[in-house]
Amino acid sequence: MRKPNIIPGLAVLLITTGIVFSAYKSKEINSEGLKDYYQKYFPIGVAVTPWDLSGDKRNLILSQFNSITSENAMKMGPIHPMENTYNWKIADSIASFARINGLKLRGHCLVWHNQAPRWFFKAEDGNMISKETLLKRIQEHINTVVNRYKKDIYAWDVVNEVIADDSAYFRKSPLYQIAGEDFVEMSFRYAHQADPNAQLFYNDYNTEQPLKREKIYRMLKGLLARGVPIHGIGLQGHWSVNNPSRSELEKSIALFSSLGLKIQITELDVSVYGGNQGGQLIQGNAQTAVSEFTPEMEEKQLKQYKMVFEVLRKYKDHITGVTFWNLSDRYSWLDNRGRKNYPLLFDKDLKPKKAYFEVTKF
């Protein structure tokens, strides 16, 4: 990832005093940030990397957000690369940043088939481990990580993306192949044992697509009926300029809140390319690579962000947090999909885009 650019001293002064200029109708942002506009609604968070914690990016975080999530450092692969080795340095720095600056901290994520180390599913002879061994490894990992950050993290994405995108029920991941559905229940029980005060979330994408939504609902309803300590669902919010529709987003919020679960938008971005966005790919028609943020993209994105936040404000009694996935268009995980994307509210110069003013104009 790129190191942050150091901006001129005058710009630093402007940002730290809360005055940031935008090309949008010559408007200014006053000392209020997203967190202030939404103070009576829900916390506004952002996923961060170690390179976001200093300089101009740090100033933007502290002026706009009151919650952060580690983008990658707390995932199993980076934090637990070998059976008897934990890498705490980067995760600790993010937890320290939140603590020092009075920010809420979400933990992401404890159990996920992706970005998991290979050793986790293998025995010494290279064969797949038993269900008993897998559950023991999950318990040890959760207990170690959750206990380390018990004083810092208020909510964990405990289990991530286990429901299949196709007609199957569960994703045929190594977790499922070894332990069936039981690893989901046990992961939540282990997390609750490690920190009874933490809010525990199931997290997934494409939660507004009817087939997948119903499967997630079915799983969560069954777990809750068995007394599994699940407190909320994370709707990832990896969306695009034409998905989801207002009606499908409202249906998802209504359905999951009917279970008594807290709802958070955990990984919000709005791709400037059409299609159903989620997971590792943007699903839909192939797009021609575009290197610039065009006026057409800007207008479509503005309208989608406006709609999304209208819905979120409408359902504020059920929503307990909204987290953007990355800070600005200077860097987005979506750039790794083979083309530059512009999915966030701040541009490559860390200035607010038109969509920012639509999100805060209410």
Please summarize what this structure is.
The protein is α/β, with parallel strands linked by helices and 362 residues long.
Amount of helix: 25-40%
Count structural domains.
Answer: 1
**CATH level 1 class label:** Alpha Beta
Under the CATH scheme, which architecture would be assigned? Alpha-Beta Barrel
**What is the H level of CATH, i.e. the homologous superfamily?**
Glycosidases
Unreliable stretches covering 5 or more consecutive residues: 1-29, 280-287
Q: Would you report the number of β strands? A: 13
Succession of helices and strands: HEEHEHEHHEHEHHEHEEHEEEHEH
Strand content: 15-25%
Shape: globular
**Main sheet properties:** 8 strands, parallel, barrel
**Overall pLDDT:** 89
What are the defining features of this structure?
362 residues; alpha/beta; TIM Barrel; 8-stranded parallel β-barrel; two-stranded antiparallel ribbon; disordered N terminus
Would you kindly provide a written description of the structure presented here, covering whatever features stand out?
The protein has helices at 9-16, 34-37, 55-64, 76-79, 89-101, 131-148, 174-179, 182-194, 210-225, 246-257, 295-314, 354-360; strands at 20-21, 28-29, 44-48, 67-70, 104-111, 155-160, 199-204, 232-235, 238-240, 262-271, 276-278, 281-283, 319-324. The chain has a single domain (22-278, 287-360), classed as TIM Barrel (Alpha-Beta Barrel), CATH 3.20.20.80. The chain is built from twelve helices and 13 strands. By secondary structure, it is of the alpha/beta class. Strand 7 (199-204), helix 9 (210-225) and strand 8 form a beta-alpha-beta unit. Helices cover 36% and strands 17% of the residues. The model is unreliable at 1-29 and 280-287 (pLDDT under 50). Strands 3-4-5-6-7-8-10-13 form an eight-stranded parallel β-barrel, surrounded by five helices. Strands 1-2 form a two-stranded antiparallel ribbon. A two-stranded antiparallel ribbon has the order 11-12.
